[in-house]
Amino acid sequence: MGKDQKSIPGIMVFAVIALAACLAVWGLTKQRIRDVVEDRKVYKFGATYMTMNNPFYEIIDNEIRGIVEARGDMLITRDPALDISKQIEQVKEMIDRKVDGLFINPVDWKMISPALKEAYEAGIPIIVVDSDVFDWELVNCTVVSDNYEAGVQCAEHLLEHRKRGNIIVLTHSAAKSGFDRIQGFKDTIKGHEEFVILAEEDCLGQLEVAMPVTEWLLKEYPKTDVIMCLNDLAAMGTMAALKDAGLESNIAVYGVDGSPDGKSMVEAGFMEATAAQFPRRIGKEAAEALYQILNGEPVETTIRIETELIDEENLRVYGSDGWQ
């Protein structure tokens, strides 16, 4: 017993030394963790969309922002309000602020080129969202819906549900996405002589522009019975004009987006169909592509996301509330 009792102080000394060593190691570990956190680069990104007067772009921006801020980084968003000169200035601002990456939805798919070139020469990775750009070699990745297929889907629905049609087309020629949708539509009805395009007019994809354009076109072409719109916002303007003229039940309206408003109009029987996009997926793919680039990982030049036609037959699958 005496021998064991004499060993106790030695054990206690050893324990104290061991504890002190552990605390020292833990202190160093905490310091290393702190150093890593403090040394981590906080990325700063810029984003400019053709207009924020469209919930579609708000959804994309919110999705990108959620991913960026969850990583402790920051996103600066600008709205050029469909003014290409303003958008070019916004890109220059981002370059001056030395952003680490750019998300761009071009007001004009060709005229944005000088700004893209400046950003490219500054070594800033560029992700284009929702619409292609003419000088695609200046950007790292383009994330878009299959816009051509969206137009094809609307035309195929029309051919299946009507025997003939006198058609008005509302487009947005400066946006490649709008051009592709209308081209897909026109290519699909080509050769079907009973379907005739009476007129094609630009409405900038905006409700407040589409409404007066539709009013004027209906006076010029009173035999119109089909209106193909490049997006759901234009379709909303078209339907407002039709309602004022008492023609909402006489003319078939098509749109692209699958917006809550568009789906509600399909549900109410005022709109034939809308080719649905998936803005949350576009935003997610865009954000992930930029982080891959910054990590030195390869990315696809183009990420094309399929659209889904929504009409009264499959509306229950998607519901009329919220975006896909």
Describe the protein's architecture and organization.
It is a single chain. The chain has 324 residues and is of the alpha/beta class. The protein has two domains: 129 residues, Rossmann fold, CATH 3.40.50.2300; 138 residues, Response regulator (Rossmann fold, 3-Layer(aba) Sandwich). 50% of the residues lie in helices and 18% in strands. Helix 2 packs parallel to helix 10 and helix 7 crosses helix 8.
Provide the descriptors you would attach to this structure in a database record.
324 residues, elongated, alpha/beta, disordered N terminus, Rossmann fold, 18% strand, six-stranded parallel β-sheet, single chain
Put the structure in a nutshell.
The protein is built from 11 helices and 12 strands. The protein is α/β, with parallel strands linked by helices.
Tell me the layout of helices and strands:
Elements: H1 2-39, E1 44-48, H2 55-70, E2 74-78, H3 84-96, E3 101-104, H4 113-121, E4 126-129, E5 141-145, H5 147-161, E6 165-171, H6 176-189, E7 195-202, H7 207-220, E8 226-229, H8 232-244, E9 252-257, H9 260-268, E10 273-276, H10 279-294, E11 302-305, E12 308-310, H11 315-318
Parallel strand pairs: 1-2, 1-3, 3-4, 4-5, 5-11, 6-7, 6-8, 8-9, 9-10
Antiparallel strand pairs: 10-12
Helix pairs in contact: 2-10, 3-4, 5-6, 7-8
